[in-house]
Amino acid sequence: MVFTRVSEGETCEAIARDLQARRGRSKRVADRQTSAAAGDGGSLHHIVRARTYLGRWMADKARGLNYKLSVHVPQVVTDDLYARADAATALILAVPGHR
What we know:
Order of helices and strands: HHHHEEH
Structural class: mainly alpha
Strand content: 5-15%
Oligomer: single chain
Shape: elongated
Distance between the termini: 23 Å
Number of domains: 1
Number of helices: 5
Number of strands: 2
Radius of gyration: 15 Å
Largest sheet: 2 strands, antiparallel
């Protein structure tokens, strides 16, 4: 699971490269574009930082702080694992030269 790997200190970029290697080469253009976009780990970074996986999806974020619609969704990661992955991500981002 991605959250576990991140919580253990692995970077999103390394995980993305590993997942792409496991998937193999795709012949479809859309798959190649998706692979290229995820190759730097940016997509995984957004997944790991999203609180949606804790069981609550926030809609209408663009309307500002005064109006947010909250929708309950299935929780797919424990609070503890999310916190550990979040802390590990913050440490990785604190490294100079890392985005």
